């Protein structure tokens, strides 16, 4: 048996990798040696606080000594510290507020109030390449995420906090707990392949893919997380969502689906040393949406089991007699009451917990600033068998330093170590707890499965007729494991030289290194009555052990030359740059079956090696780009960009692509200044053409060979890997997008409105196309498909109440997107992307020309010309043709947030919704045919002698024949009819509520050394207000991939999360 100590020992990385990671961290820590230099020259600090007219502390106010480069910014509590001399003039400025100047006259403490501007609605947005621009200059959609949205309702994966909060951003987290990935889509799904649909993530100038690692296979199916969970929300300074192709065009092929720009904190100049501590504790309580029938128990044909054999064969069936509490025999031979057990979900799962602590040290002088933080998260998942645990440690460092008056250096580094033990199986009918708990008869108590999981010979005791499918989770505890380790280092170094006040040169180096290790097993005796290989016919003990390790390095080296100049009423910004992107990935996989020594899971102990694979690939992209901005009188702006990419994965004779864009904005409110009701008005428009090579892996255009895992007569043999023919003519798919937007703000910005409309056409999609088997292959990849995305985004913000001590802000956003298939392959109008195959699967996910993407397709009822359902002469169903039931993709995504602020108390409530998609529920099929759902009660209640289905015979006469319910409902599976199992995937959720109390003024006056204290209590997943899918949360079955979208299977339940957060600043 595999014990915990062995599991933890196996969970460690190889010594070489640990040394490599340690040296990187040591190098990073060594950078902190320059920190003391920042602390020189703090002889006359001036401290203070900046508030607005309602006495609310203002964060991000720039405080600058006029005529110098000495500047700082206020923290979350409005506090600042800056070195200045008597007679100096301090300038206080913040976008949206009137600037103020104050001459120092021996003051050491300065408290100042800023007044909101009624007309200037300009805000600074972090755009591509980390360049900050005033929002009025942008001709495309870009939305800055509010930091409180990330901090008030914390999640282990920071992207989950944004559900329904950004127009056009669709967030779908699977119900897999801490360490899981999040599906991110901007403006819908614009490509067939799932990997090519996520936006680019840019952290401190370092571009990277989302990197979701969620299994789409049948079994096992585990969610192994993504790159976003390696970001600590406490370290985030700003997050900007660049929605359209124009917004992210300068990033080229990697940003065909937009980009999310994240900047982490670097501390503040002239701040002195500061310490910030944040602690968050979350309890995750399981939500059970199942509402199964509790009238009839285990059995079939209306009869309860009478012996152990019948108890085993009917363990998954609820077609027995009406439960009366009398003792009956169970699968283990023990007599137990024949009574319902309706709380099995909550009885099996436990409350999960997440405890996160972050400590940050920051400081600065007039020459620079720094911030270093360490975060530790420990999570206990809701799944006890096998025991799910997740830990994460993050070290983050950011610093800026003026080497000279013109030469500036910045450095950011992030090191993350993750350990995920036994993540729950998601969305699969394989050997997982969700499948078992929802398909075993309600009359069998959970204690029976727990107490009798192991047979006398040490194998899993058989509980049902589906011995290899419905597997007891209690047998897995202590025997079955899945261990996932990951170490990652991100580093960015930037050097900028200001040649003149209008001209600069910048160089940047980004380094991304990761190493991951995955191990899992099938223990001996799992799903079988014998521990021996091949039912005792072969040597050794049955079982499986799998291990894989991946190392990856991504290096980005870029340069940028920028110039900005004004000529009277005209302004011009010009930039020219280039980038070299190198990627090096190596993966090895070993898998063995059957073991010489029982319960020893290692490659050496395996008898049959089923996988022995080592893969290494390298690719490189060279790029040159330029962008220009032309302005007139601060109200008219035109932006042009162009980027040329050269790809190593393409044929050298045709490996280059060019991506242009143009955008413009017109601030027409500048011509209507006499209209007091209009605070701000802007019209924007853009066009861009970008592409993506993400669907083209290295070596896909050339033939290459692999080594067979097992030798033949002592010889190692080579083979051509796979059945797909290489294609030397592959090229990146292309995305052309147009956008038009309008921004309006009225009545001193008490009413704000933003609407955008866009059309995006994606051509040269890469799809597998079947070829003749005579070629030695079955298919090849070709540029054949095209899609069209059309949509609108709407944002509305209202301040209904704005008084001295009370403020109510209400914001609503919604987006409409439809993705239509324009073409597939020549001569092909329909393509099956994924068949939902297996023992109980029905239907498929298909692409069909002229219809919205991702159609759920399956057999329907056979109907006559009047639309009536036809039955055979025995009153039973007949199989109809295969039809499309609708797209699995939602059309509408949005949210509504209300925030009430009274003095230092803030209450925030958020609702979000999705609508317009369909879901095919395999659980509903299994629940009906096996007698578990309430729908299965029709035909066996008092006074009913069977199912008299509402249909007609072929002669047109109405059906009057009653059919045995078990036989009738089993026909749905046998005939693969899907109609009763198609539901809307719509939902409306009361997503979260948060109460925040800012005690900064009190503790500062009381203790002095404490600069800020904030307490927050919150609840996430407060209530599910509307859904159409019975028994399950329509979000729970989500996957980060696109191949199984809209297909529901047994899944881990969602949770309601109660959290308490403490933030204290010294």
UniProtKB/TrEMBL annotation:
TM regions (residue ranges): 21-39
A GO CC term attached to the entry: cell outer membrane
Localization of this protein: Cell outer membrane
Residues in TonB-dependent receptor plug domain copies: 137-259
Membrane recorded as keyword: yes
Source superkingdom: Bacteria
Membrane topology classification: Multi-pass membrane protein
Record keywords: Cell outer membrane, Membrane, Receptor, Transmembrane, Transmembrane beta strand, Transmembrane helix, Transport
InterPro entries, alphabetized: Beta-barrel_TonB_sf (IPR036942), CarboxyPept-like_regulatory (IPR008969), Plug_dom (IPR012910), Plug_dom_sf (IPR037066), TonB-dep_OMP_SusC/RagA (IPR023996), TonB-dep_OMP_SusC/RagA_CS (IPR023997), TonB-dep_rcpt-like (IPR039426)
Family annotation (Gene3D superfamilies): Carboxypeptidase-like, regulatory domain, TonB-dependent receptor, beta-barrel domain, TonB-dependent receptor, plug domain
Family in the record: Belongs to the TonB-dependent receptor family.
Name of the protein in question: TonB-dependent receptor plug
Source organism: Sphingobacterium sp. (strain 21)
